[in-house]
């Protein structure tokens, strides 16, 4: 099971420094998100600062760029990295796409299927001068008179699909080189809800399980003091619990009542980043890795045999940058202990 990491930095300089440290510690992939920064710009910064770890987007928004722009950026990042780039794509939610980005939403499963098809088609034909054309309900493409004058390092850059719901998870199994989980994904949810749908998609496409890397995301808080470990990560749990879309996820873990308490606090006016006081220890224990290094290592080991890789990330919601830094330092130390790297 590969250990990978999502570095955090208040500045790009800090982000780059943390990426270097995580690579030395033994993280095999460095993942960058898209919300407060551009995923592709962040990826470029990490690529320039590292030498052997893969660099991936987890995730880049699939519909806010055209498939051609996404394909071009991926080709450039892959060239910059010497073939270390992984394109992780996700849909985001309807409001984010339509209201924030003025992007088309459509039916997200079909829309993402056509988007990934177009990206791969562009990679295949970008240097040939051939017509690049495909029909589609959401992303038809028709490119004539185009020929990329620069070499393409790889036409098969890995495309990972972020998914939580059953239909999108099946799509990841059908078309993805990998699947990336939501930031909160327990071993039981992975085993009972995700893997059956992923296997259904794999089987429907006539593929094998080894064709799709399963990357589970795990928000992680390491501290010798149990209360500190719990407090640091409670805000992240509260942030996600405030969203009704995740009702089935929390209900699966027997946490429907606890989620409702968080939603009630949110409706009373607390910001989504400030809900830690409404999150109890049961929610934190069920959905995150937390505790001292030995306890977190044991929690991490439960994913072995279910996931091919774990993407560790530090807590960021409802705590100060100093606390995130402290949590991040502990995670990097843990990665080094697990992999034999250098903290």
Automatic annotation (TrEMBL):
Source taxon at top rank: Bacteria
Residues in Luciferase-like domain copies: 10-305
MF terms in GO: oxidoreductase activity, acting on paired donors, with incorporation or reduction of molecular oxygen
InterPro entries assigned: F420-G6PD/mer, Luciferase-like_dom, Luciferase-like_sf
Name of the protein in its database record: LLM class flavin-dependent oxidoreductase
């Amino acid at each position: 099971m590969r250990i990978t990491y999502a570095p955090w930095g208040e500045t790009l300089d800090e982000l780059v420094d943390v990426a270097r440290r995580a690579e030395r510690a033994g993280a095999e992939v460095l993942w960058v998100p898209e919300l407060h920064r551009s995923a592709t710009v962040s990826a470029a910064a990490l690529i320039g600062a590292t030498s052997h770890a893969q660099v991936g987007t987890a995730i880049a928004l699939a519909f806010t760029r055209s498939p051609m722009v996404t394909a071009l950026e991926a080709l450039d990042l892959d060239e910059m990295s010497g073939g270390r780039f992984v394109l992780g794509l996700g849909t985001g939610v309807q409001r984010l796409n339509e209201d924030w980005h003025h992007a088309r939403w459509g039916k997200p499963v079909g829309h993402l299927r056509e988007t990934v098809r177009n990206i791969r088609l562009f990679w295949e034909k970008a240097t040939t001068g051939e017509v690049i054309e495909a029909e589609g309900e959401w992303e038809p493409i028709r490119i004539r008179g185009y020929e990329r004058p620069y070499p393409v390092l790889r036409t098969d850059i890995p495309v990972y699909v972020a998914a939580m719901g059953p239909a999108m998870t099946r799509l990841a199994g059908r078309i993805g080189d990998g699947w990336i989980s939501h930031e909160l994904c327990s071993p039981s949810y992975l085993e009972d809800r995700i893997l059956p749908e992923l296997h259904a998609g794999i089987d429907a496409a006539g593929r094998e399980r080894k064709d799709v890397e399963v990357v589970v995301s795990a928000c992680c808080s390491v501290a010798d003091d149990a209360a500190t470990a719990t407090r640091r990560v409670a805000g992240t749990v509260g942030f996600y619990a405030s969203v009704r879309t995740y009702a089935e996820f929390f209900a699966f873990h027997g946490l429907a009542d606890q989620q409702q308490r968080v939603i009630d606090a949110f409706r009373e006016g607390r910001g989504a980043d400030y809900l830690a006081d409404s999150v109890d220890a049961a929610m934190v224990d069920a959905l995150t890795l937390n505790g001292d290094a030995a306890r977190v290592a044991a929690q991490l080991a439960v994913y072995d045999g279910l996931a091919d890789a774990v993407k560790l990330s530090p807590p960021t919601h409802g705590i100060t940058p100093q606390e995130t830094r402290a949590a991040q330092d502990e995670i990097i130390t843990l990665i080094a202990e697990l992999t034999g790297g250098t903290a």
